[in-house]
Amino acid sequence: MEQSGLGQRPLRPPQLSRPSRSARPVRRGPSGRAQPVAYLYLLPAFSFFAVFAVAPLVHAFKLSFYEWNGITDQVWVGLDNYVTVFTDPKVRAALWNSVILIIFYAVLPICVALAIVGLMARVRIRGRTAFRAVLFVPTILPLTVVAVAWRWVYAPDGPLNFGLDLIGLDFVSRAWLGDFTFALPSLGMVGTWVTFGLVFVLFAAGVQKIPSERYESARIDGANMVREFFAVTLPALRGEITVALILTVTAALRNFDLVFVMTRGGPGTNTEVPSMFIYRSVFQIRSIGLGAAIGVILMLELLAVNLAVLWYRRRGDLSA
C-alpha cells in the first residue's frame, strides 16, 4: 500500500460552506403553516377593530336593556325596548322603508350594470375607460354634497320640473320630495345613481378576466346574446355580484346622510329609515336605550342579509 511522504499531511475532503442565516428555510408547523408569531402582524388591525367596532357594539347591546336619557341613572327594563321596536308602527314603517331602498340601492343598479356589461362583452365600445371613470364619480362624492345637489334638482322650481315643463309634461311636475307617493322612490333613485358606478366598475373588471375562448365557443354553438350572457358572463361574475350585493345592501340599510339632508324623514314619516329613527331617539327624545335596541336590530339585519348572500354564493360554487 502506498504511503504518504514524511511530514506530509493526508488530504482532507473539502468542507461545504454552512448556509447563511438568510438562506435557511422558514420554520413551519406540522401542517405546513407559518408559526403563530405570524399572527402578530394582524394584532394592530385587530386591536383597532376591537376598540372602535366591537367595543361600541357590545356597549350598545348593553344599553339596549336599559332606560336612559344620557344624564340620570340607568334603569333596567329588560326586553321592553325590543318590544317597543316591534310593536311601534313607526319603527316597523322605517324598517320596511329600508327594505324598499334595497331595491333602488342594490337590485336596480346590479340589473342595469349586468345588462350593460353583457352588451359590452358582445359589442365593442370605444372610450370604455372614460365611460367607467365618469360613472364612478358619484361613488367618490361625499353623500352630503350629493344630497344637496339632488335636493336642488327635485325642487319645485328645479331642473327636473323645468325640463318636464319644457317638453310638455307639465302634468308630471310635482314637489318630488314633498309628495307622499314619490318621496321615497325619488330618494331611492339618488341611491341608484350613487351605487351604480361602483357596481358597473366591478362587473366591467370581472368581464375582462373571462377568457375570450368561452365566448367564441358559445358563438360557434350558435348562442345568441341572451344565451351567451346566461351561459358565460353571468356565471363568471358570481364573485363580483356577491361583493356588489354586500356593499349595496349595507349602504341601503345604514342610509342616513341622504335622508337627513334631503327629507329629514318626511313628508310625515314616509322616508323614515332605521338610522334616522336612531338619531331621533337618541338626540331628540333622549331615549338612548330605545336607539341602542334599534341599532342592534339593524346590525342583526345587516348580518343576516350578508350571511344569506355568502351562503348563496357558497352554494353556487359547490353546485358548479
Helical content, roughly? 55-70%
- Structural domains: how many: 1
DSSP strand count: 2
What is the succession of H and E elements? HEEHHHHHHHHHHHH
Q: Specify the overall morphology.
A: globular
Q: How big a fraction of the residues is strand?
A: under 5%
Q: Write down the CATH class.
A: Mainly Alpha
Radius of gyration: 30 Å
- pLDDT averaged over residues: 84
Textual characterization of the structure:
With about 325 residues, the protein is mainly α. It has one domain (about 80-320): MetI-like (MetI-like fold, Orthogonal Bundle), CATH 1.10.3720.10. About 65% of the residues lie in helices and about 0% in strands. The chain has 13 helices and two strands. It has helices spanning about 45-65, 80-85, 90-120, 130-140, 145-155, 160-165, 185-210, 210-220, 225-235, 240-255, 255-260, 275-285, 290-320, and strands spanning about 65, 75. Strands 1-2 form a two-stranded antiparallel ribbon. Helix 2 (about 80-85) packs across helix 13.
